[in-house]
Amino acid sequence: MKKKIITFISTIVLTILCFSPQASAAYNDLHKGYATYTGSGYSGGALLLDPIPSNMEITALNPTDLNYKGVKAALAGAYLQVEGPKGKTTVYVTDLYPEGAPGALDLSPNAFRKIGDMKDGKINIKWRVVKAPIKGNFTYRIKEGSSRWWAAIQVRNHKYPVMKMEYYKGGKWINMEKTDYNHFVSTNLGTGSLKVRITDIRGKVVKDTIPKLPENGTSKAYMVSGKVQFPN
Predict the structure, then answer these.
(1) Quick one: pLDDT band at residue 6, thresholds 50, 70, 90?
(2) CATH class of domain segment(s) 31-130
(3) Rounded Cα distance, 65 and 62, in Å
(4) Does the bond joining 51 to the residue before it have cis omega, within 30 degrees of 0?
(5) Distance (Å, rounded) from C-alpha 50 to C-alpha 139?
(6) CATH superfamily for domain 139-225
(7) How many CA atoms lie less than 13 Å away from 159 in the CB half-sphere?
(8) pTM here?
(9) Mean pLDDT, residues 169-176 taken together
C-alpha cells in the first residue's frame, strides 16, 4: 500500500513538471530556437523605440517570449546575449517577430553575420536576457495625444525589462496597463506631477516623478529625463 502511495505521488509530481514548464521558468533562462535576419526594425517597429542608430545590433522577438508571463511587450527594450554557430553577440529588442516560434529571433544583418553565415539564412541559436550595457537613468517617452485625462508613457534606457508601472493618486498606487506598443496607459492621472513606481522583470522596484502632463492632448510625443535606474 505504501509503495502504491509513493508511486501515485511521484506520478503527480512528474505530471506537474511536464505540463507546467512556464511556471518555474526564470526570465534569464537559456532559450533555444532559430534566427533569421531582416533589415527592418530600425524605424516604425511595433515597440515604438525610434530612433535607433543604423549600426546598432537589434532583433525582433517572437510573441511568446516578448509577452513574458502574459505581460504585453514585457521584453521590449531588453538586451539578449545570443550564441550561434560562429560565436556570440548582444542585441537590443526593438520589434515583434509575429510569425516566429518560441525561441525565435529575427536579427539585424550585422548581428546575424557575427554568429552565423548569411548564406544559411536560418541558424540554430541559444539566448538569454542580460543586463543592458547602458549608462544613466531612465528616459520616459510621453506619447502623442497624452494629457492628464489619458496618457501613454514608455520607459526607456532601463537595465532590465520593465514589467509594471503604477502612479500614486488619492493615497494609493494605481496600476497602468502595458500595451502591445510598449507604453503604459491610464486615465484621469491628475493635475500635478506624477509619482510613479516601476518594477523590473526581477521584481526590483524604483520610484520616480514625472512632470505634470499637458492639460490637453499633446500633438507630438516628447521625452522626459528620469532620475532613477534599476539596481544591478
Answers:
(1) very low
(2) mainly beta
(3) 6
(4) yes
(5) 13
(6) Expansin, cellulose-binding-like domain (2.60.40.760)
(7) 15
(8) 0.88
(9) 97
